[in-house]
Write the structure tokens for this entry.
Amino acid sequence: MAELEVLTDAAILIDGDRIAAVGRYADVRRATGDVEQVEVSGVVYPGFVDCHTHAVFGAPRLDDHERRALGMEYQGIAAAGGGILESVRDVRARSEAELVALTRARLGALLAHGSTTIEVKSGYGLDRETELKQLRVIAQLAIAQPAALTSTFLGAHEVPPEFRDRRGEYLRLLCDEMIPAVARQRLAVACDVFCEPGVFSVAEARAILGAASRHGLGVKLHADELDGSGGAELAVELGALSADHLAGVSDAGIAALAASDTIAVLLPATLIFLGRRRQAPARRLLDAGAAVALATDFNPGSSPTVSLPLVMALAVSQLGLRHAEALHAVTVNAAAALRMATDRGQIAPGFRADLVLCSVSDWREVAYWMAVNPVTAVWTGGSACPLRMGPVSLGTHVQA
Ligand code: NIG
Ligand code: FE
């Protein structure tokens, strides 16, 4: 992951939605006939892959933010009725059309920061109707804006209030009704569980993801986010695509991930936003041989950022990744976490022509500037994307 090839005076030949050739400008030019030419200056990167977001939500959670500033913890806030369940009440009350409009603006902001492929989870419905509504929002937007979307069912994000004293019944609803409905309607390609002490246990996550697997869904886990409970080990046992968060991962979890194909997805912006001192042991994961990816975790409760460049900069300064490792973590490895590594995440012949241009002189600058967007142009599937630059409202304020 620490090695990458940087070409200067380069050209990329695109045919349809694919990269046909890449190399020195003079060599590529000599080998091609009459083609439309777009000249750019700066650095061109493979389109970034954001492999973990919760982009379908209503309002930002400002009260949680303030409560945390006053010293309350994530779990305490949830117990006081804030947290995920506040977003659940909000999303249940909003129409599908309203959620499409809000999510469209947020996907535009993710794209403007270089994310050309974005995983989006449900998980703010926690009932059949609202979970399917969130997934339909993703399906609608997948064909109505330029970024490629992949959707994950996260009905096991929390136990909804109406099942508080009957969690076994909620598990049955998830396994026997919701997962089959999601699979039948082809509304998600993967299933995720928030496996954390006080949310879903390892045994519960095993049961839910077993049902998901039987219905043909890929599996992934919010594992050991705040406290370790064996989530990473479970992810490996189940052959999960990824184990995400991992701030509390055990030594056994690190060893298991290193010996597996499961990608360790790290989300440093989340722990910064939550005010936590402890980040995931990225260096130990990398040195043990685990494949590490990075993502925004974009959501209203723990990570209100749309910027993979910011996440890369945090990975260098907080996780001890080198710039090249951070770049691999948002391209090749993030694509692998979505089972797309042979199709995107590299500028190489045959790969999808998803490209990001930054006006920088050194490629490492993409993981250096903080709270500035270094991205100046984006192409998905070979087509230039109209980008909404400048101030963007990510909240519910209606834009002119
Ligand atoms: O990845 N941990 C669970 N899910 C999100 C937070 C979602 C929320 O607080 O709304 C996360 O951090
Ligand atoms: Fe998350």
User: Anything to note?
Assistant: The chain has a mean pLDDT of 96. Residues 54, 83-84, 87, 194, 222, 225, 270, 297, 299-302 surround N-(iminomethyl)-L-glutamic acid (ligand 1) (CB under 6 Å). The CA atoms of residues 72 and 177 lie 36 Å apart.
